[in-house]
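In practice, a research group might receive sequence data for several interacting partners and want a quick structural hypothesis before committing to experiments. The following worked case mirrors that situation: the sequences arrive first, and a predicted assembly follows.
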Amino acid sequence: MNCQDFETIIIEVARDRLMDALERERALEHVGACASCATLLVEERALSRDLRALSAQAGAEEIPARLETDLLTAFRQRAAAPSVARATAPGRRRWLLVAAAALITFGLSLAGWIALTTEREAATTSSTDGGIAPTPAVSATPEKPGQPPSQIVAVRRPDRPIPASTTEKRQKRLALAGANRRSASNDIPREFVTRFFPIMQGGELIPLESGQIVRVRMPRSNLATLGIPFNQERASETIRADVLVSNDGLARAIRLVY
Amino acid sequence: MNAFETCSDETLLRLMMAGHEEAFTRLYRRLRGVVYRFARQMSGSSSVAEDVTQEVFLILLRKAELYDPQRGSLSTYLMRITRNEILRRLGRDRVYVSLATDAREEDELPDENLIVRGNPLGNLVRDEEIEIVRQAVLALPLHYREVVVLCELEEMSYNEAAALLGCAVGTVRSRLHRARALLKQRLRGGEAGEQDTPRVNRASCLG
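A structural hypothesis for the assembly, expressed as tokens:
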């Protein structure tokens, strides 16, 4: 080993760190034979000693206890924070809730629109079913004598009765929607209809494959025979009604038109 | 024996993230020394070291999930944060040096008062001697100072230091050689270490 080689490993030798045993042996042999390198090694060892002393003193330096106290306080605050965040719904969850609410709103709107469209179509072609109350419809055209009655083209399936509450809600919605639609156009006369009241014995509506609706005008007093309450003071007046006639020619149900 | 005492640093970290206060306490007590000493030796100030230590562990609390075991030990991760904090506080611009700068000019002592002449180590009491060594280390440019602190004072291996600093092992070795030469020069006022001092590509290892 020459002086140049020795200088490349002098620090490892001076620091007494782990190194290749053979290399260390050669380095020490060189030191024994080279005075200048021996001097360098002494200096390096002295420096290593000084640095170790500095390291030992730094290691003995105490870290203020308040650091730990402050950090523990911060830890507790952070540990408490997530539970509050959870209680108030974190950002991601909030977005999910908003998205779900928007989806539900859209779904309800779509369902309502579909129901409105369906009922409107059914009303224009006139319809009924075996339920308590067929969906009310508004005749878009005024009553004209001699005009053939409209054909019933669709009747709700008997295995799918409409709940009364749903029907009532639809009636209100449709009445309101119909009123709004008509108010938008002065050419269309205002007309409101009630649900169908059964005329047949037994008081129950039976499902019909098809039938006809006949617009009639009759005395209000006739409402008593149908079991429909009316104003006695206006008994002499006439009232318009839609009579549902089945294919066998029998009047099955009637609804009032205002 | 407390169950936490046998846990690895990484396990303690996971427990800490799950809200175990004792795990955090253990982790802090294990690693505070290396963080504090590194900051203390690099800055020369106890107050700065305290601030840096606190900040480092607060960062660990806030961003524990950023630690990637694949990239090294937790202590190395914390040391890296510590180094960044120190450089930020000491002024990061000081470590950026033009590649064209002559190493001899660059390595000149920034403060004449830090130069120790004669043979003070033989004349002063031990504490004073250590203080002189401390001042000599502090007088080193940052890129030399940190390898001295890591490899000599914290007794890290070259590989560990290189991983922390983000540079090659050879760079660490050459810097340590140069830093020790400067220290000898400054502590004894001699010419040792000035011969054949290699130029250092400082921009290659700024992490």
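Before designing any experiment, note the following. Confidence is low (pLDDT under 50) at residues 95-106, 190-207 of chain B. Chain B has nine helices and no strands.
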